[in-house]
């Protein structure tokens, strides 16, 4: 019998289950077993892909938390059970801490209480306030009546372990989807409790706006929770007083903080008042000050008086706030006035605004969608947002606006469709009958959005509150693969609809023929018979600018005259004294840093060399060799944060030094069987929805309103035919 059964339960909410299981796998413990009560296919597949000794209990999508916990516990053989929700985390070594503390306890102890951390969607892990209660008990095992303040611990099942026989005896009373009810009921049923004053759990709070909305009547559940708990403490003075304190605090805060419809508010107040009177302990002393007044009015059932008291407090707060607000409102800009006037006009159902890469021009997924829109829905007029410096680069006849101009604000205010691969400015208002389509511009290897909070180098200058406001405008989010879908839902938690259609910009990799490949190479000046290697490194947050990590002159010399390097970077050595000048003149190095579209570079290249750039995911559609040059992987992974280990899930050969990179090409390993095998697995995972018809699916669904079942289905990857290689062309 193992000392501990860790029971992971629930759906793979926003992709967090993978991280949790990785932690457990990285720190195995001989005296513990891992059971995953996996709700839904993705949770089951994720669990099955981890350590073979993990016990997986597959459950249907609609399985509730209580049922999932029971299913996992039924398979457990450990002396103690630790229930861990799939959205939450475990600090390294937590199961060992719990198992070692549990081994010290005899069977008179039913519940072991732990400390925890809390991570929210907008903040890194912060310590709980529970430590002082745990420390007060120390190592003793006590009846709850002698340590009633333990009821004040955050009511999570994850911050307590339950003895298995205790769970079995009280499963019916604890089998509820209301976790705070189950957590506190476990304490009230326990014979004796013990504490571990060390952090052994991470509670992850998901953004409410990413979860199904609550209806006002759901607030009654709080009263019902305490109505279920209070009878368990009815004849126990100390627990009853603490539980009553908690009940009154929660009732008052909920009533004060929730903007409930009047009918719901009155009913909530009525029920709360009855509970306050029914369960008030004898000789109970109300708190002093404002809180005491609130308690008295609630017990009295004085709804009108309570509302008047609230109104007076709000008036005082509002007056102070008004002074601050007036200062910010002084000197309102003409732009705002114009925009507000435009917002009063009807939405134009035949107007679409497109933007890409912070107004750089016609590019990426928005460009591919706009092209397909012209074919399938020519009645919708596209207008591009383009910075003043880039207007000269636009294709002839492109209708466009420059940011900040009067027409710019007019089209943003009246367009039915707003399409971008980044975000529109904070000032843009989401009109109810407008549709915002977020196309993104890559597959996430590095941490994005809210996941950057824990990585200061990546998050510098990022306003997370403003980010949340921007993503709340999204109606649709385009995705190239299920990995991206999950990571977008995690990094950008909101109520948009994910469109698992593929990236429209990658359609060209399946629709281009040999003539298109030859034309791309001719435009770049690549002579027939030459091997073109595209080198496209990514930006690093810990560097002020682009620093070439390769000696490109030496690399070109070692690879020989039959190889051409296409170098796409932010900037690199320039001027007449550059060691690359001669290579440029000879045609053995071509600076393509400003060349658009990048998809043409991919079509022209025989192979890609990159580090951590998302171009690898797009290029993999071509089923051509990819070499990862990762000389600073550990630094990048630590500084920026990543979603998976590229060193083990790579798309081909991996080089850690320039010498290794050179040898990979000179030996032919860049296109050998092992590289092809890795690329096949990579394509299957990250080119999941890209089949050449992504733009069509997006236009038909978003702009033409066609139902999901009427859209062209995604072709299986084995049935797709990428564009021919340069050698074939």
Number of domains: 4
Radius of gyration: 30 Å
Structural category is alpha/beta
Q: What is the number of beta strands?
A: 21
What is the level-2 CATH architecture name of the largest domain? Answer: Alpha-Beta Complex
Q: How would a textbook summarize the main sheet? A: 8 strands, mixed
Q: What would your notes on this structure say?
A:
The protein is of the alpha/beta class. It has four domains: about 210 residues, Alpha-Beta Complex (Spore Coat Polysaccharide Biosynthesis Protein SpsA, Chain A), CATH 3.90.550.10; about 110 residues, no CATH class; about 160 residues, 3-Layer(aba) Sandwich (Rossmann fold), CATH 3.40.50; about 170 residues, CDP-glycerol glycerophosphotransferase, C-terminal domain (Rossmann fold, 3-Layer(aba) Sandwich), CATH 3.40.50. The protein is about 40% helix and about 15% strand. The protein contains 28 helices and 21 strands. The strands form three sheets. Strands 1, 2, 3, 4, 5, 6, 7 and 8 form an eight-stranded mixed beta sheet that branches. It has a seven-stranded parallel beta sheet with strand order 11-10-9-12-13-14-15, with helices on both faces. The chain has a six-stranded parallel beta sheet with strand order 18-17-16-19-20-21, with helices on both faces. Strand 16, helix 21 and strand 17 form a beta-alpha-beta unit. Helix 7 packs parallel to helix 8 and helix 13 runs parallel beside helix 15. The radius of gyration is 30 Å and the shape is globular. The N and C termini lie far apart (about 65 Å). About 0% of the residues have low confidence. This is CDP-glycerol glycerophosphotransferase family protein. Belongs to the CDP-glycerol glycerophosphotransferase family. It is a peripheral membrane protein. One of its GO terms (molecular function) is CDP-glycerol glycerophosphotransferase activity.
């Amino acid at each position: 019998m193992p000392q501990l059964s860790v029971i992971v339960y629930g759906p793979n909410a926003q992709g967090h289950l993978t991280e949790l299981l990785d932690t457990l796998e990285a720190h195995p413990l001989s005296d513990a077993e891992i059971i995953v009560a996996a709700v839904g296919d993705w949770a089951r597949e994720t669990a099955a892909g981890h350590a073979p000794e993990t016990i997986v209990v597959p459950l249907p999508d609609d399985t509730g938390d209580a049922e999932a916990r029971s299913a996992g516990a039924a398979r457990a053989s450990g002396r103690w059970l630790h229930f861990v929700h799939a959205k939450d985390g475990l600090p390294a070594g937590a199961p060992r801490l719990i198992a070692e503390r549990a081994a010290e306890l005899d069977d008179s102890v039913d519940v072991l209480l732990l400390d925890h951390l809390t991570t929210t969607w907008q903040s890194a892990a912060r310590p709980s306030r529970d430590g002082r209660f745990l420390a007060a008990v120390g190592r003793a095992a006590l009846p709850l009546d002698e340590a009633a303040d333990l009821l004040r611990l955050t009511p999570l099942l994850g911050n307590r372990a339950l003895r298995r026989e205790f769970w079995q005896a009280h499963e019916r009373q604890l089998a509820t989807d209301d976790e705070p009810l189950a957590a506190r009921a476990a304490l009230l049923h326990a014979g004796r409790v013990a504490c571990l004053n060390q952090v052994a759990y991470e509670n992850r709070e998901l953004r409410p706006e990413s979860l199904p909305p609550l209806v006002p009547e759901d607030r009654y559940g709080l009263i019902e929770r305490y109505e279920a708990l209070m009878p368990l403490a009815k004849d126990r003075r100390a627990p009853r007083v603490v539980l009553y304190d908690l009940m009154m605090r929660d009732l008052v805060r909920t009533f004060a903080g929730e903007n409930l419809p009047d009918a719901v508010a009155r009913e909530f107040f009525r029920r709360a008042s009855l509970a306050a009177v029914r369960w008030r302990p004898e000789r109970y002393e109300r708190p002093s000050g404002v809180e005491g007044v609130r308690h008295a009015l609630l017990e009295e059932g004085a709804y009108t008086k309570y509302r008047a008291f609230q109104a007076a407090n709000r008036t005082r707060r509002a007056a102070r706030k008004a002074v601050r607000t007036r200062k910010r409102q002084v000197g309102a800009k003409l732009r705002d006035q114009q925009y507000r006037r435009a917002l009063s006009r009807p939405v134009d159902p035949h107007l679409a605004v497109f933007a890409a890469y912070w107004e750089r021009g016609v590019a990426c997924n928005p460009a591919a969608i706009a092209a397909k829109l012209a074919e399938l829905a020519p009645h919708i007029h596209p207008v591009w947002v383009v910075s003043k410096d880039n207007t000269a680069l636009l294709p002839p006849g492109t209708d466009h606006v420059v940011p900040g101009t009067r027409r710019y604000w007019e089209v943003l205010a009246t367009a039915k469709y707003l399409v971008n691969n980044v975000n529109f400015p904070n000032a843009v208002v989401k009109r109810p009958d407008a549709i915002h389509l977020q196309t993104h511009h890559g597959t996430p290897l590095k941490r994005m959005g809210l996941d950057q909070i824990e990585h200061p180098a990546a998050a510098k200058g990022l306003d997370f509150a403003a980010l949340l406001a921007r993503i709340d405008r999204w109606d649709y989010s385009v995705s190239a693969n299920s990995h991206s879908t999950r990571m977008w839902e995690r990094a950008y938690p909101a109520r948009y609809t994910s469109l698992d259609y593929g990236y429209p910009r990658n359609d060209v990799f399946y629709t281009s023929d040999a003539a298109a490949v030859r034309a791309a190479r001719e435009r770049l000046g690549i002579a027939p018979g030459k091997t073109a290697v595209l080198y496209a490194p990514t930006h690093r947050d810990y560097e002020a600018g682009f620093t070439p990590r390769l000696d490109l002159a030496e690399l070109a010399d070692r690879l020989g005259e039959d190889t051409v390097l296409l170098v796409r970077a932010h900037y690199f050595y320039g001027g007449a004294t550059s060691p690359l000048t001669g290579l440029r003149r000879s045609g053995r190095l071509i600076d393509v840093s400003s060349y658009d579209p990048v998809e043409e570079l991919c079509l022209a290249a025989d192979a890609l060399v990159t580090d951590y750039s998302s171009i690898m995911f797009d290029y993999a559609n071509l089923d051509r060799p990819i070499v990862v040059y990762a000389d600073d992987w550990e630094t990048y992974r630590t500084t920026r944060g990543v979603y998976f280990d590229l060193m083990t899930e790579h798309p081909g050969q991996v080089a850690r030094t320039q010498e290794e990179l050179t040898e990979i090409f000179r030996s032919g390993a860049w296109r050998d069987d092992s590289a092809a095998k890795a690329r096949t697995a990579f394509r299957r995972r990250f080119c999941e929805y890209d089949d050449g018809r992504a733009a069509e699916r997006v236009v038909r669904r978003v702009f033409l309103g066609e139902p999901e079942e009427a859209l062209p289905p995604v072709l299986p990857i084995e049935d797709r035919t990428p564009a021919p290689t340069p050698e074939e062309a």
